[in-house]
Amino acid sequence: MIIKLNYPSFISKLPLVFSCLFLILFPMTIPFSVNAALSNSPQTAKQWLAKGDEQYQKKNFGAAIQDYNKALAIDPKNADAYNKRGLAYNNLDQFEKAIADYNKAIVLDPHNATTYKNRGGTYVNLNQYERAIADFNNAIAINPQYAIAYYYRGYVLFKLKRGPEAVASLRQCIQYSDDNNLTEQAKNNIRQLGGTP
Questions:
Q1: What pLDDT score was predicted for residue 19?
Q2: pLDDT of residue 55
Q3: Residue 162 pLDDT greater than 80, yes or no
Q4: What is the pLDDT of residues 30-54, one digit of tens each?
Q5: Using one digit for the tens of pLDDT, what is the confidence trace for 55-91?
Q6: How many angstroms separate the CA atoms of 117 and 124, rounded?
Q7: What is the pTM of this model?
Q8: Rounded Cα gap, residues 82 and 45, in angstroms
Q9: Cα–Cα dist 158/151, whole Å
Q10: N or C end of the chain, less CB within 10 A?
Q11: For the chain, how far is it from start to end, CA to CA, in angstroms?
Q12: Domains of the chain
C-alpha cells in the first residue's frame, strides 16, 4: 500500500506550526541566554577583584583599576580593593592616587602589613624616604617575619647612606626569606655595603 501525503495542505500549515513553536520555546530560551551572559560577567565584589587581579597580572593596569572600581561600587569598605587599586595606580606612576587608596585601605584594615609595605614602596617612588621607612617599620611590627619589608627598608636605608642599619635590615630579610632571588639580592646589597651576609 502506498501512502500519499497531501503536501499542499501540510506545507500550508508549517508557518503556523513554527510560529506556535517559536512562541512556546522562545520565552524559555531568554532566561538561559541571559543567565549564560550573566554567568560570564562578575556579580560580586570578590568576582570583580578576581577579574581585576587577572588584568593586573597581564599588566593591564587601567583595566584592573576599572574592575577594582566596580568591586568598590559594590563594597565601598573593601580594604583589599583599595590596596590593589593603589598598586595599579602605582604601576601607572599615579603615585598620589596610590597613596590615597592605601590610606583608605589602612583606615579600613589597619592590621594589614601588605598595605603598609605597598604604601612604603610608593613613598620610595616619591623620594619620601622617611615616610617609606615608617611604613616598612609598621609592616614589620604587624608581621615580624615579613622578609620583603625588611628588604625594602634596607634598600631605603642604603639610599640614605645608613649602612649599618641597612645591613641589619637586609640580614633580617635573609633570615626570614624563602625566596632565593630576594635572598641573593639582599646578600649582594650587603656586599656592596662592605658587609658579610
A1: 39
A2: 95
A3: yes
A4: 343 333 334 467 789 999 999 999 9
A5: 999 999 999 999 999 999 999 999 999 999 999 999 9
A6: 11
A7: 0.77
A8: 12
A9: 10
A10: N
A11: 101
A12: 43-110 (1.25.40.10), 136-197 (no CATH)
C-alpha span between 44 and 51 (Å, rounded): 11
- CA 5, 6, 10, 12 torsion: positive or negative? positive
184, pLDDT greater than 60: yes
**What whole-number distance in Å separates Cα of residue 99 and Cα of residue 119?**
6
- In the three-class reduction of DSSP (H, G, I as helix; E, B as strand; rest coil), residue 146 is classed as coil
Rounded CA gap, 108 and 143, in Å? 18
Find out whether 156 and 129 touch, Cβ atoms under 8 Å.
yes
DSSP per residue, 155-172: HHHHHTT-HHHHHHHHHH
Distance of alpha carbon 165 from alpha carbon 33, whole angstroms: 62
Residue-level length of the chain? 197
Coil, strand or helix at 111 = coil
Which residues 6+ apart lie within 8 Å of 180 measured at CB? none
The grid coordinates of residue 37 equal 551572559
Cα dihedral 100, 138, 162, 194 sign: negative
